[in-house]
Write a structure and sequence with these properties.
Structural class: mainly beta
Length: about 375
């Protein structure tokens, strides 16, 4: 074992022994932030493949007959009241000085395309029953929505495009987020064939994305939660200047239905490859634009196949559930950790993709000139 491996092993052991304590370096963290979900799920999840392109363990999926009807519990944020007196951790909101964090784009802006079913299934506009353990309680600020509507239909490397999307992700682009393999998500996509761009369908689904292994400066940093092989699922971070202050995470689910890559354009700080759990900041006083407010939907992709297509037109419908890892399951009567709605509404079969379009970058820092409202973690 070389010196670097010994150092990483010592850090991981210390993190396990002292999880929950406030770090000595940098500003104090919210209660439970240093938990890292270690011992809750990261080190004990089953090893699951994430490269398949067909549904798992089913030839002809049969939708449950008792899918509950959602009850809408989230309402649009009152845009004329940017500093409400009480924060609701289940409601989307933009940046306010009082809150010190934001959730990127307003999901309600595309209710006319995707409807309001999600808010009932999830119980609100932020987080959901399939969150990773204590994710909303300990790391609520890491939730963000990326929303886009694009009249063009250009897939670049596929025959099926993503014409609109509404995606909730969880990511704190700094050392504590970088060390965690699984992060939750929800996505709704309007997808169409490039050859028939006005004949579109909607895909809805969520769960946990597997972001594989941590790489710093393109070198793998081993962690106890690593899969047996890293493959394409990876979290790419840098160790600091002169490297760019960005990070890109590539994640996937079992079955390949919903792969995505997100890129933080203004991450909180570098990651030390010899001590990846150490919290570092480019701006320790938060008085600069390196505050995790700028995010890009780098890749949205997946493959739809294996579902009934009675008329053979290449479009399918399905209404059922998947577990947190993306496998189709049966017997669900209500939404839960391993009963996550998965709905296909006239979705074209085959491989779909959207990749780094010019309009896919979001800047959510609306602090007035000369002020910096965002505080860690955001």
């Amino acid at each position: 074992m070389n010196k670097r491996q010994i150092a990483v092993a010592v850090i991981v052991l210390l993190a396990a022994l002292f999880a929950g304590r406030t770090l000595a370096q940098g500003p104090a963290l919210p209660p439970g932030e240093y938990d890292l979900e270690a011992g809750q799920y990261v080190f004990n999840v089953p090893e699951l493949a994430s490269t398949a392109t067909e549904p798992v363990a089913t030839d002809t999926p049969i939708p449950p007959t008792d899918t509950p009807e959602p009850t809408v519990t989230d309402t649009p944020f009152p845009t004329d009241t940017l500093e409400p007196s009480e924060h609701n951790d289940r409601e989307w909101h933009p940046l306010t000085e009082a809150f010190g964090h934001e959730h990127k784009e307003d999901p309600h802006s595309v209710d006319d395309i995707f409807g309001v079913q999600f808010y009932g299934w999830a119980g609100g506009g932020v987080s959901y029953p399939w969150q990773t353990p204590n994710e909303n309680a300990n790391k609520h600020e890491g939730y963000g929505w990326l929303v886009n509507v694009d009249e063009s239909c250009f897939a670049q490397y596929a025959a099926i495009c993503v014409k609109a999307y509404r995606v909730q992700y969880h990511a704190i682009m700094g050392s504590l987020g970088a060390t965690v393999r699984y992060h939750s998500y929800w996505m709704e996509l309007l997808i169409c064939r490039e050859s028939d761009p006005d004949n579109c369908g909607i895909l809805r689904g969520g769960g946990w994305h597997d972001f594989g292994c941590l790489f710093v400066d393109d070198v793998h940093v081993p962690l106890p939660s690593d899969p047996s092989t890293c493959g394409n699922n990876r979290r790419l971070h840098n160790s600091g200047p002169p490297k760019p202050k960005i990070a890109t995470w590539y994640g996937a689910t079992v079955g390949g239905f919903t792969d995505l890559a997100i890129r933080g354009e203004d991450v909180w700080g570098p990651v030390d490859p010899l001590d990846p759990f150490k919290l570092q900041f480019y701006c320790p006083d938060y008085q600069c634009a390196l505050n995790n407010s700028r995010m890009t939907m780098h890749i949205l992709a997946g493959s739809i196949g294996g579902f009934d297509d009675p008329d053979g037109d290449g479009y399918v419908d399905f209404n059922g559930y998947r577990n947190r890892y993306g496998q189709i399951v049966s017997g669900c009567s209500e939404v839960g950790l391993d009963c996550i709605p998965f709905v296909l509404e006239h979705v074209p079969t085959g491989y779909y993709q959207r990749r780094n379009n010019a309009s896919d970058t979001v800047e959510a820092d609306i602090s007035p000139a000369g002020e910096w409202w965002i505080k860690y973690p955001n």
